[in-house]
Design a protein that fits this description.
The protein is of the alpha/beta class and 313 residues long. The protein is built from eleven helices and ten strands. It has a seven-stranded parallel sheet with strand order 4-5-6-7-8-9-10, with helices on one face. Strands 1-2-3 form a three-stranded antiparallel sheet. The longest helix is centred in the N-terminal third of the chain and has 21 residues. Bound molecules: calcium ion. Calcium ion (CA) binds next to loops.
């Protein structure tokens, strides 16, 4: 099954209501879909997480290595593409582009053999997973204590048993808002917080201690991804389990995060960390280190489907 063509699709839409997290505003949403066609007419779809146009440029740069190659030899192609860009791209854009390609090859493999990817891997190990609501961002107007409490209560009313709130807007303000959201949803709905690496260890530890009584499920990206010593400090000096990894890549990057026990929950993005092929390896490493794995997902239905195939095994 030879690869005939690789096409990129940049999706872009302006938002009616811009939203923000600790380090920035989103006024548009973008996504990059990767479409691979084989000579016998099968089409596979993948997705790359991250800035869509730069990701698309890297997929285009990888395309000559894919044309004419055996679409079923996914592991071999992964190694070839990674090796071709290794000297200048062990993290970030090249691995994101490679992830979208890897997922499209898994989709092709599934179509060729007439089975979903998780069946080809030997699953399912599970056929249901608990979802959590990601939302609770800041808006341009209004009192966040009021609108976030209302939004959180809305997710609980829809049946979500867990949700995630953005923090990183100042320790005192964060503490007030986390408390207001916890009061709005009651004690039985799981609540996680995400600072998008907006803090240093000192401030993250202060926040974690201030909200120690609010039963927070995890404290996501408290500090910048490069600061593994800071991660370890946050883990040691405040009581909330620490999560991170959406800005980490490949088995080689996660080797450091897991080996140094920097997190309690590791969060590779299937569309960024190296695709399904690589995330299976990272999952096995997390298992061997006794560290929980919850995929990061931020994209279209293709990203969600890829994460579900992984979660199934
Ligand atoms: Ca996050």
């Amino acid at each position: 099954m030879r690869i005939k063509d690789v096409r990129v699709h940049v999706l872009e839409a302006e938002l009616d209501q811009p939203f923000s997290w600790s380090l920035g505003w989103a006024r548009t949403r973008t996504a990059l879909l990767v479409e691979i066609e084989t000579a016998d007419g099968l089409i596979g779809w993948g997705e790359s997480y991250g800035p869509a146009r730069p990701n698309a440029a890297v997929v285009e740069a990888m395309k000559p290595l894919l044309i004419g190659a055996d679409a079923l030899a996914g592991e071999a192609l992964w190694e070839q593409l990674y090796a071709a860009f290794r000297d200048h791209g062990q993290k970030g854009l090249p691995v994101q582009a490679l992830s979208g390609i890897d997922l499209a090859l898994w989709d092709l493999r599934g179509k060729h053999f007439g089975a979903p990817a998780h069946r080809l891997i030997g699953g399912p190990v599970r056929s249901e997973v608990q979802a959590y609501a990601t939302g609770l961002y800041r808006r341009e107007a209004g009192d966040p204590r009021a609108y976030l409490a209302e939004e959180a209560a809305g997710y609980a009313a829809k049946g979500f048993a867990a949700m995630k709130l953005k923090v990183g807007f100042g320790v005192a303000e964060d503490a007030l808002i986390v408390r207001a959201v916890r009061e709005a949803i009651g004690p039985d709905v799981a609540l996680m917080i995400d600072a998008n690496h907006g803090y240093d260890a000192t401030r993250a530890i202060r926040l974690g201690r201030m909200i120690a009584d609010l039963d927070i499920g995890w404290f996501e990206e408290p500090v910048p991804p490069e600061d593994l010593a800071g991660y370890a400090e946050v883990r040691a000096q405040q009581p909330i389990p620490v999560a991170g990894g959406e800005c980490e890549f490949t088995r080689f990057g996660f080797r450091e995060l897991l080996g140094r026990r920097a997190v309690d929950v590791v969060q590779p993005d299937t569309c960024a960390a190296g695709g399904l092929s690589e995330c299976l390896k990272i999952a096995a490493m997390a298992n061997a280190h006794g560290i929980r794995y919850v995929p990061h997902v931020w994209g279209t239905g293709v990203a969600l489907a890829a994460a579900l195939q992984l979660l199934a095994v």
